Amino acid sequence: MSLARFRTLVSGGLGALLLLFGAAVAQAQTGTITGTVAAAGDVGGALEGARVTVLGTNNATFTNREGAFTLRNVNPGTVQVRVVRLGFDQATQTVTVVAGTQATVNFQLTASPFTLDEIVTTATGDTRKAELGNVVNVIQVDDLAKEAPIKNMSELLVSRAPGVTVIQSAGTTGAGTRIRIRGANSVSLSNEPLLVIDGIRAESGAASSTLGTGGQSPSRINDINPDEIASIEIVKGPSAAALYGTAAANGVILITTKRGSAGRPRWNAWTEQGALNDDNDYEINFSPLRAGGSPGQICRLDQVAVGACTISQVAQFNPFLDDVESPLGNGYRRQYGLSVSGGSEQAQYFLSAEQEWEDGVFDMPEAEEARILAESGRTRLRDIEKTPNRIRKTNLRANVTAQASSKTQVNVSAGFIDSKLDLPENDNNVLGILSSGLNGRGDPSVGPGLWGFFRPGETFNSGNQQRTRRLTLSGQANYTPTSWLTARAVVGVDYTNRVDRATQFFGEGPNFGTNRQGVISENDRNILQYSVDLGGTATFQLTDDITSKTTGGAQWFRSSFRGTNSFGQFLPPGSQTLGSGSTQFASETTTETITLGFFGEQVFGYKDRLFLTGAIRADRNSAVGENFGVKYYPKAAISYLISDESWFPTGKLLTSLRLRGAWGKSGLQPGTTAALVFFDATTAAVADGSDAAALVLAGLGNPALKPETTREWELGFDANFLDSRVAVEVTTFNKKSSDALINVPVAPSGGSPAARFANLGSVTNEGIEVTLNGQIFTGQTLSWDATVTGSFSRNRLKSLGGVAPINLNGTTQRAVEGLPLGGYFARSIRPFTDTDGDGLVDPSEISIEDTLSFQGNSAPTRELSLATGVNLFSSKIRISSQWDYRQGHLLYNLNEEFRCRSSRNCAGVADINSPLSDQIRAVAVDAGLKGGLATNAGFLEDAEFLKLREVAVTFFAPDSWTRALRTDRLSLTLSGRNLWTDTNYSGLDPELNGQGNGNFAIREFLTQPPPKQFSARLNVGF
Amino acid sequence: MTHTKDLNLMRTFRTGAGGLLLTAATLLLAGCESGIADDLVNVNPRDEIAPGAVQTADGANALYSGAVGLFSVSFSGNNGGTEGFALMSGMATDEWMHSGTFSTRVTYDQRSDDANNGTIGGMLRNLHTARIQALRAQRALLVTGSTVAGDARVTESLALEGFAFLMAGEQFCAGMPFDGLDEGGNLVDGAPLTTAEMFTEAITRFDAAIAGAPGAGNVIRNFATVAKARAMMNLGKSQFNAAAALLANVPDNFQYLAFHSTNGNRNGIFVFNTQNERWSIAHNEGINGLPFRGAGNGTDPSQADPRVPWTRTGGGTDVGFDTSTPQYDLLKYLTFEDEVVVASGTEARLMEAEALLNAGDASGMLAKLNALRAGVTGLAPLTDPGSTTAREDLLFREKAFWLFAEGHRYGDLRRLVRQYGRSQSAVFPTGEFFKGGNYGTDVTFPINVVMEQNKLYKAAQDAGQINIRGCLNDAA
Fold first, then answer.
1. A17, B190: Cβ pair inside 8 Å?
2. String of b and e for A102-113 (b: at least 16 CB within 10 Å)?
3. ipTM of this complex prediction, to 2 decimal places
């Protein structure tokens, strides 16, 4: 039945396409409109990049550098031409067009800080933001990348849009990030948003690595060079993303790369030189030496409390602050880039090349280098041993736009990335430098001594390198056979080749297991995202007041993941090759997903102020199962520019007001084979040293599976106040995932596989997002602007469909009905009384609840950010900063727990001056002290923080300088990042995640905190 | 007019957009055809093997190989991720001390555990994975032409399935459920079993294996026989004599082994002890522990008991993964490929000795023990210590050394409490724990909290029958 409906839809789509062909051959004689667009008043000057449109048609173009435009194929008669440009009020003029002739019309736009007329990209093409019923946040990247300390996409996205939460996993150079838009929708499937670059889907894996370097996994979104991006649009949820189809339930990040405009070649060169400095407050390692004890014997505070021993001296040491021992140095960052854009009216180009080097803050101590050389007999260390964390990246881009004919425009975008990332060992990893630094002792006589496991000379030896080569290639053709009809086709592929190689050569590095006998692993990954997107849009002026825009199309996406794993162990001395290992393994992994979708959208406009949208998308997917037929995702939206009504009281105070609302559905599919029972091949020793081929059950399957569906509605308004000097955008949303695909654990009594997907329960997210933009003061000498974004969100697991609570990260993070997904759980510590008043915690004074209870959210529920800038001296100097505040969540400080429980070197165990709360949690976590009933509740800490993320000062050279230097533009930006944090969280940083970029798991555990970053960037345009 | 249309169409085709539109039309046309849309979303996953593959004789044999391999993992551990039955038995008692850092291992070495321990949960799942695989192998072999009586693979799978019940009964608390398989191979929730029920279920399967493996020299028959006797010994002293009687035909040199290989399932005891240095041989652990490192203070390998040979590398200074606990490596297993004894003629003789002691025949017991010792250079004959309690201590001491690192110690210490009236604090490690704090009082492993997904177990829990450690009861 569903297949039949699908075919019907296909037939309809075919009819629409044939209509396009018909239209192509049924055109009449037309005319041309030319003109210029300039800024009015004191601002003056030609306006490049203004969008010029013949109203009621698809006929549109952009102005060139001289502000000139040409609209061809305009139907004869009286038409209205509208000009829209960011930072200016829109303008509309009436023009009479005579067939075969050229009409001229010129525009002067009035500067307006905030308007509703921004052009945004949608699944059906470019659209005025005012016509959308949903909110779309636009980040204009060009200026940001030049004037703010932004080195990757994570830093570009963090705190730029309300409802978009970016969680950096570590301060390590090259570490990735986790992105959530309007919270987590899915218990078991990815909650990462979809990434679209120049119209095609792109790889955005959040934990893209097989290297055993803990949570420091890179994210593929950080491959993208911010300097190549023109703008980013964030489509937040199903109400907006329905037409992006399956996989868009988590929102969509749309990236548009830069394009050239007609004119002489315009060169832009830049260089950035920067330093990284880690002055984080690393915890001190304590050793409470036992009075009268044997060398190295300690006496814990809980033992003092019960009179078991006394402390003679509390020895202290902090290897990160020690001049000789510290593995921290200054990191260095360099970047060089060159771009050129230009072209003719027929073809424009944008070419860009950039190289980036960054060395992280880890630096081999000189004494360690000398020790290793002496012990190994080598004459020099490899560079990677001296600086184990660094990235070398090259980004190339070539974008070409060509007017293939008067009706056909072709855009080709090609981006290439070659990245070589060296990652240190860290996080939950005995080889990690933080592992040893934070778990050393305060005195060399205690336990392992000043370093917990290995010294820097050993830990820096392990090589972990990821080489990534990525080509993103897309082509888009827009064909406009008539003024009312446009057909578009986008095809492209995003190809990522990733090689993860980990090495420890014979006789070198940490003496861990058999590693010093030599071990190499190399895992190759080929990740391909293919996109084919075909569609057409017909626009009609149905009556004087009513316009109609009809869009239909088809999309085909294929995601392919193929990998091979190879491993060689027990290498001969001197060997650096896999094949030389006396023990070798190889394996492979493949995953493939395909989605085929058809969509149609109808928009009616009334008097250019009321817009009604209805749309539907039908998807088929490669997921196999009885219920994986066609999935429909509908959408409806309304946008009402109520302030355009004559009766509406606009004025200086309230300049404009738009009301909007949207409703839509989107979905997520499980893996292709989630519905199937299947076996894995393996080997098993069935006799003395003899392997046999074996099969083991690997998938329990669930033939009843169907896609997870997320529906969302949102309501909001956009209002401009005080002559459009202040703009407010308020949105409330409510999102619900139904038939939630949950990877339900199988009881251990059933053996493995340990889980099976089932459609159970539901998840809701609701919240409010606010953006407040203001030109606080505007003057020739001084102007001040500010943007405040804030959001409140509430995530709840409404139902688990009757299954028992699911552990998402041991029992510390769980999925429990009625509570936030991934919330923290622990046995609570009952109120403590120091009954003997000795200022020490006797284990008998502590009482712990028997059962686990909810302790708090793991994701912030309230976020507020402020980006503000001051322009001085006719905008020759700009000083800007970004502040970020998050609240309503906890972070698991496993660092300190481990130090207290295992290394016995934390203040709560050793320092008699430590607060009772530190002593309480140190005792409560020790099962041996509490008769087997332990709790980590004391280490689930409030992670509220206020951060000064960025400060930048940009000097724009005066015209006399640029003329003297024969340049067009010259600017110098001095900036700093990660400058200040205010928090009660006692760990290294309240944003760390030692479990990388997984779906929910989050904790700080031996994770490198973010270093301060200072840079100087010089931009030269000529 | 017609001519103009044709020209326009040609121009259209000359543009890239025209070509792409044609592509679109082709795609949509294709989509109209039945099956074409299916083709457009068709994928061919390479990794997964369809169930049909195991419905052949070769496929059934591959399932059997998987059962043997998974049993080996559950018994002696995998390549470093999850320890097995033999390792856990020794860590929770006095055979091993934890020289690693994992808190989940520290707590069970310390005998202070709860149902949230993921490491124990992993071991628990491995045990059932091996059991269910053995069950699937039996089914597959039988439907592809094998018979219980004629195929050692079927009887071995039966015995391995039974051994999983035995391992669970010896180590985990009462309340463990065991899922079954329906006709279609789907899991069927099992109800929580008492400790005695687990041993009874084990015996049922050993009996079936024995019945299908006739002939005195049959290795599987001997394996099932020794394992059955072990299960019977666990059921109570009243069954000692019957158990001993079963063992009469088990030869002294019989061994059933868990096999390992470098590329497959490595010897987990070697991996966790010698390679990863997370398990270190204990010596007089927790007041009650036996001196497994030999005479003196256990620091001289030349004084080691020949049944527990060991070394400390680095010139006698090696420390474990935690960089502080002295690391003592067992020389019983020297490579990834070394076998681990699961059941043996030695074990049979030791059970016979225990039955003799229980029957009041102290000299018979001594004779059995000394007969074993006579086969090893450096082991002097034992003399009667005189009292019943001392004889019991002697017997269990001998058993501990003979079967070191073979997964017997936890079950034996529990039996000392359950059957011999000893207190847990008199036989298990107790007092101050060497990593700080004190030893707890656990005498069983808890049942992991994820077991709540078993509906029958959850019902018992909801009815208040399951305690905080996930147990019906957690007595010895």
1. no
2. ebebebbbeebb
3. 0.90
